[in-house]
Amino acid sequence: MRTFYSFTVILGLSFFVFSFSKLESTNTTYTKTSNNTIVYHNNHDVNEISNDFFKRYSDLKKYKSDVMSLYKNRTLGTIWFDEDEISEFGTVLYEKAKKTNDLVIPYQKEIDQLFSSSSDKSTLSQTDADMLLSSLYVLYTKKNNADKKKLAYNEMLKDFLNYSTIEETATVDANAKVEYDQYYKLQDILKKYKRLENSSKWKPIVPAETPYKDLRPDAVSNTIAQVRTRLYLLGDLKNDSKSDVYDRELMDAVMKYKVRNGFKPNYILAEEHIKEMNVPLEDKVATLKLNMERCREISALIAASDEYVLVNVPSYELIYVKNGKVQLTSPVFVGAPLTKTTIFNGEIDRIVFSPYWTVPQSIVQNELRSKIASDPNYLAEKNMEMINGQVRQKPGPDNSLGLVKFMFPNPDDIYMHDTPSKTLFDFEKRTFSHGCINVKMAKELAVAMLKDYPEWTQEKIDKAMAGKVENSFKLTKKVPIYITYFTSLVNEKGEVGFFQDVYEKDGNSTNTETSITVN
Predict the structure, then answer these.
(1) Into which family does the record put it (predicted)?
(2) Which of 1, 84, 80, 75 is nearest to 38 (CA)?
(3) Which of 1, 15, 208, 243 is deepest in the core (most CB within 10 A)?
(4) Are 364 and 391 contacting, i.e. CB atoms less than 8 angstroms apart?
(5) How far is the C-alpha of 476 from the C-alpha of 350, rounded, in Å?
(6) Do 40 and 30 meet the contact criterion of CB atoms below 8 Å apart?
(7) Residue among 15, 12, 117, 140 at smallest CA distance from 67
């Protein structure tokens, strides 16, 4: 059942942030599926696309049959993309191919640009990019599987598109230095989890009551004793007394467990917590390895930065680091599954106090037009105005962007901002926006970032946030921002957290979407 919120929350809709692939102009009929793969409707269409591709990339024509066999059961659906981004498997293929001796790669420049982080970014369509990577896969496999010629390339692909390939890459590059130190923190945790995996101590928690009932402090149950042992093995509890009483010692351990894993900080042991504790160790090990590989993709600049903001989508958390120390940590909420927050690096160049919010035309057309027509005072009552044909909400505590926003230029027009919808931070799964990042402690972040600007006193900041007109301040020193996707991270205390795979990038998520969306 769809949940309806007050007008303020409904007006929290910003703009739809969709990243559509640029496709080559053809007469082919196709359907774009929910996961952004392109499905062509018949063999004639497939042949037309493949003929066009190999005509333009003629040096690959001799590999046409092998390449097209990879799409045999995909009808040209993408292989190497996860939504609009090249997947981890595509990155592993590229890295493996680069390290293969004597491998001649046609169209090397075009492939290199697909993985470039510079301004010299590729403008290839997703279809062309995917087929180039498939061609690279065939070349790489021919070179490295000379003894397996009888095995079809599409059969070998099934093995390649397995997370063991990422694990193999980690083994190959074990001695390569990774600039982001989170890699080595995860590596230490991985050793611990592998030891647990090889021991006989880890046993599934079997609830004593059916159906399961939430457990609270002072409860007595065999389930409590099992939870106690689990938290002892995980390091949240120093001693395992084997007691089946939910006592103070266990309360502290449960709170520690919940906080590091992004659960709501209370003492209730619900069924979802037991299920998370029962995730097989082999799955946890795979998650740790995958996130170690993600550390390799983080810009090396983060290690050299004396100041930066990092937002991790799965943990719904922002940290602000300065001079090597975490200055501020804040909960955030991010893009809904259909309007994902883009994972990228940028630079914050402006802080805008008392911002206006320009209402997207889709909301004006679908929600406001009839209300404005029926009530001449409607806009004034909602602290809104019409400027040059556009509706905008004036600054104020009820403005959908809150009292301050942080701008960092990017093609998706994503930014961070305050929000009046503070109650949404009480949810454990916080995918509510249309792509922008809503920050609970936005005011505190602005104060922390402006400490090096003596003219911005606390009094001046308070006044700017209470203004009647927008006040934009351009930072003389841009602050790097990293929007990341880590489903496991180690905090400053050396404690690991495992978080929801909210955008299903790990390949094993069963999360469902929420119907609530705000800006």
Answers:
(1) Belongs to the YkuD family.
(2) 75
(3) 15
(4) yes
(5) 9
(6) yes
(7) 140
**CB-CB neighbours of 446 under 10 Å:** 23
Dist CA 254 CA 54 (whole Å)? 59
Name the phi and psi angles at 65, rounded to 5.
Answer: -60, -45
Question: For residues 123 and 113, what is the distance between their CA atoms, to the nearest angstrom?
Answer: 9
Q: Residue 348's beta-bridge partner residues?
A: 479
Helix axes 164-172, 153-160, angle to 10 degrees: 70
Number of helices and strands (H, E) in the chain? 19, 18
Q: What is the pLDDT of residue 166?
A: 62
CB 468 within 8 A of CB 395: yes
Confidence (pLDDT) at 46: 74
Could you count the other beta carbons within 10 Å of the beta carbon of residue 392?
18
Burial of 507 (0-12, 13-18, 19+ CB in 10 A): middle
Give catalytic residue positions. 417, 436
Q: How far apart are CA 257 and CA 267, in angstroms?
A: 10
The CA distance from 174 to 306, in Å, is: 27
The tokens describing 94, both together, are 């590229």
Task: Identify the H or E element spanning 343.
Answer: none
Q: What is the pLDDT of residue 361?
A: 82
DSSP string across 46-111? HHHHHHHHHHHTGGGGGGHHHHHHTTTTTTT--SSEETTEE-HHHHHHHHHHHTSTT---TTHHHH
Q: Tokens 């007008």, residue?
A: 7
Which positions of the chain have pLDDT values less than 70?
1-45, 73-76, 83, 117-121, 146-151, 162-177, 508-519
pLDDT given at position 149: 53
Beta strand 437-439 with 416-417: parallel, antiparallel or unpaired?
parallel
Q: Determine the pLDDT at residue 519.
A: 57
Query: Taking each helix axis from N to C terminus, what angle separates 281-297 and 164-172, rounded to the nearest 10 degrees?
Result: 60
d(CA 35, CA 31): 11
- Residue 319: other Cβ atoms inside 10 A: 18
Residue-wise pLDDT for 271-294, tens only, equals: 999 999 999 999 999 999 999 989
Q: What is the pTM of this model?
A: 0.66
Q: pLDDT per residue over 214-240, tens digit each? A: 999 999 999 999 999 999 999 999 999
